[in-house]
Design a protein that fits this description.
- Two copies of one chain form a homodimer.
- The first copy, chain A, contains five helices and five strands, in the order E-E-E-H-E-H-E-H-H-H.
- The first copy, chain A, is α/β, with parallel strands linked by helices.
- Chain A has one domain: Ribonuclease H-like superfamily/Ribonuclease H (Nucleotidyltransferase, domain 5), CATH 3.30.420.
- A five-stranded mixed beta sheet of chain A has the order 3-2-1-4-5.
- In chain A, helix 1 runs parallel beside helix 2 and helix 3 crosses helix 5.
């Protein structure tokens, strides 16, 4: 199973792709889609859409694990992140990729085994599980890879109970 | 100039298209994109994207006037409206349609001449300006048509000052 992890944003979208055999994770690719500040916002959305389409077509993931959105104090930023996240969901659904949402708590629990784990611990465990020499950069890419591990672990649990059916 | 007005949402997206000569408005089409409750959210986004693409290709508007988003008390709804709005912006930018945002206050001021006008007054003035026999239904379509009038009026003002150049 090939999992695409996404840490959503509009200036930086972290992405990570892992293959999961049900036992081991293998990193395939990771990085970040960057859009330039000062560019018209719709143009930034278009850049994200084009790059997401490229990633979906090139790596053909089976599923996408994306961070759930919560609103922060900055409403303007929150609205723009949500607008960009809509674009990312659209790209996945147009490529028939099933979509799963996880909260930061679920990611920490799945990767470190402890919901209150620190960011550094999550990143270090991600590095170990994927047998990478260094913690991936930028942080958004590391977060996206952590989401792939979270989905792999969650999926495995569900597939045992439901005889191979993925949860919706 | 052909203007596409959009009242964003994820269950109902109101749209309205008007031709504006610099003097008169002529309604071209209006209606609403509806997505079914209970459908997976990414599928609803895809339905909006497909219908928006259809509208952009069929009516070939020169520009889009869309309502600016503000957050309400319901964060979950706010996030989902923003995600859908991102999709709508993407469709416009992918069809080379310039995008303009207006607040409800600006719409009221442009259509009725009074920022605190009631919804009913805005709808009735929209009906009169577009020479329609009845107030368009649903309300979302009427709101979208009001946005086309707002953009026409604002644009006209700007075009006088800037010798025909549209404001960015």
């Amino acid at each position: 199973m090939r999992i695409l992890g996404i840490d959503p944003g509009y200036a930086i979208v972290g992405f990570g792709i892992s293959d999961y055999t049900g036992k081991n994770f293998m990193p395939v690719e990771y990085g970040a889609i960057l859009t330039e500040a000062g560019t018209d916002f719709p143009e930034r959305l278009k850049a994200i859409a084009d790059d997401m389409d490229f990633i979906c077509e090139r790596y053909m993931p089976d599923c996408m694990a994306i961070e759930k959105l919560f609103f922060t104090n900055n409403q303007k930023t929150g609205i723009d992140v949500a607008q960009a996240r809509g674009i990312i969901l659209l790209s996945a659904v147009r490529h028939n990729i099933s979509i799963y949402e996880y909260t930061p708590l679920q990611v920490k629990q799945a990767v470190v085994g402890y919901g209150k784990a620190e960011k550094k611990q999550v990143m270090d465990m991600t590095r170990r599980i994927l047998k990478l020499e260094q913690i991936p950069k930028p942080d958004d890419a590391a977060d996206a890879l952590a989401l792939t591990i979270c989905h792999g672990h969650c999926c495995k649990g569900v597939s045992i109970k439901n005889a191979g059916q993925e949860k919706k």
